[in-house]
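Example 3.
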Amino acid sequence: MSRSDNSVRPPRWAEMLLRFVLPSDTAETVSGDLLEAYRDSVYPRLGRWRADLWFVRQVAGYILRIRTTSLGNWILAGLLLCVFTTTFFPFSMGLMWVVITVYACAAVFGTRPRNERHAFVLRLGQRWGIAIGIWWIAFCLCTHLLIPHGLPAGIGIDLAFAFLLPFASGAHGALQTGSLRDGVRIIFWSGLISGVITFLGVFAINYVLNVPDVLDDSGGFLFSITGILNLFCGTIGSCAGRILLERTGRGPAEPPVWKSRK
Amino acid sequence: MAETLGTFEQAVLLAIVRLQGDAYGRGILSEVQDRLNREVAAGAVHATLERLEARGLISSRIGLGTPIRDGRARRFYRLEASGLAALNEARATVKSLWRGIRWPLKV
């Protein structure tokens, strides 16, 4: 056997997985390094089967150390958990399947920053999504756990914040980027992330603490409506933010804001 | 005061020093494994390189690929002045810790 046989290949699925989990700028160099090691030393030393095992172990190591591409993977993991919850609750999954499919596609194809501006949009969407998600979980805990029969004004507050938070995130996004389109993108990501967080958080409250009526058969509706409502109110907020910029004649907060936020 | 370095970070930085102009992922991995005399995960080396680069201790540039890696690009690393200072300080700290103690230690 020659020392380095360029015709041998590690498992293709493992190579594809590696390219999937790494950011595009590092995927090529890292996969090249692993391929070179595989052909140059591992395969001649260990043979086919153990060399393949070595390669798979290396890929698993990269997956465990994911940092920069974690957003997409976290979203996919969250969506999988959401689907898993349906084994516990008989949700009406019709609309939820559509939303989950759209979200999964967005997580796979849209979470790798193409440039600094895109990275900034993702970061801001992520922050707002986490904030909104935590707010809803806290709200559910307060209204359903601390006050078992619900707060009379609960529905009013619920609705107010359901409009207010996405509106604020949209307006903030448009003010920061100076772009209506980027504002809407920020809302999309915040809606997606907050939807997953809220759904899983509320499910956990229901399951662990056995609180009735927190998550019933309207679970699928709750999941879907969070994203849609977020998108609707956030778009209005983005428009408001953009109009405010036009009226005041100011540019984005720190133009160009995405260059200064690494 | 220069950056504080862990043992593995020092191993990676010293591998870059030894390899000089040929310090890319695969070479650094081999060098670190040889020096530490154990199997090291490529992901661990890569994560350390990313961290060191983010701290400004090293810099990188993309270079051409070779047939053995199907022409895939290589990322070459270079030690920066701050990285050199950090290594010097790490060495000085170890020397200072061991000063006056006979090696190897005996019970």
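Chain A touches chain B through 23 residues (CB under 8 Å). Chain A has nine helices and no strands.
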